[in-house]
Amino acid sequence: MYSRVIPCLRCPLCHGGLVEAIAGSGLALHCANQHSFDIAKQGYVNLACPAPAYPGDSAQMVEARTRFLGAGHYAFIAQGIAGAAVAAIGQNADGLIVEAGAGTGYYISSALEALPGLSGLALDVSKAALRRASRAHSRCAAALCDVWRELPVMDGAAQVVLSVFAPRNGVEFRRILAADGMLIIVTPTVSHLAKLVGPLELLSVDPDKEEAVAASLDDRFQRVGHERHDVSLHLSHSEVTALVGMGPSAWHVDAGKLETRIGGLPECVEVTASVHVGTYRVCGH
Ligand SMILES: C[S@@+](CC[C@H](N)C(=O)[O-])C[C@H]1O[C@@H](n2cnc3c(N)ncnc32)[C@H](O)[C@@H]1O
Ligand SMILES: [Zn+2]
Question: How far is the CA of 75 from the centre of ligand 1 (A)?
Answer without folding.
Answer: 18
